[in-house]
Design a protein that fits this description.
The chain is α+β, with helices and mostly antiparallel strands. The chain is built from four helices and eight strands, in the order E-H-H-E-E-E-H-E-H-E-E-E. The termini are far apart.
């Protein structure tokens, strides 16, 4: 599967305003968190969106930076990844936790992580249904629509200088609550 930023968290505001204060984000890595990352992605992409399992997993997972969204009970409800090239992808939020700003928080976290890694821009392949979602997060579409895993997509890009104070500095970098504003 290509490394697109499929996000069924499209409806609702991508900002933190609707995110429950009990949800936290933390860095994750493939070696230690593989099972929970796979469970979320399998639920969203394979079961819900019908993407073949063989298309979901790729060698890039081993070199990516990951983030997990966790409830107060430490249940993982969302994930996303950042490749060393600056490509954001595999943004997934479980259905019962959507429309709460979790998907937007995951994307902002990955953009800020790219900034910390010294990248001056990030890009993604967005499902066309998610274009508005990513535009509200500072991404701009470029190039024509294309098919990826049977779903129409567009490439989108954003400079990392658009740092989000919600994540940067105020809460540290390991784990932080998503405050409601």
């Amino acid at each position: 599967m290509s490394e697109d930023a499929r996000t069924p968290d499209v409806p609702g505001d991508p900002g933190a305003a609707a995110t429950p204060a009990a949800v936290t984000l933390r860095h994750a890595d493939w070696q230690h968190d593989r099972d929970v990352i796979q469970a979320i992605r399998r639920s969203v992409f394979v079961e819900e969106q019908g993407i073949p399992e063989s298309e979901e997993w790729d060698a890039a997972d081993e070199s990516c930076h990951f983030v997990l969204a966790l409830t107060a009970k430490c249940d993982a409800v969302g994930t996303g990844r950042l490749q060393p090239t600056g490509k954001i992808g595999r943004i997934a939020v479980l259905p019962q936790y959507r429309c709460r700003g979790i998907g937007g928080a995951i994307v902002r976290h990955l953009v800020n992580q790219a900034t910390e890694l010294g990248l001056d821009q990030v890009y993604l392949h967005a499902q066309t249904a998610a274009l508005d979602f990513y535009e509200r997060l500072g991404f701009r579409a470029e190039g024509p629509e294309f098919d990826e895993v049977g779903i129409p997509h567009r490439r989108m890009r954003r400079r990392t200088e658009q740092r989000d104070e919600h994540e940067a500095g105020r809460h540290g970098h390991k784990e932080h609550p998503l405050d409601a504003r």
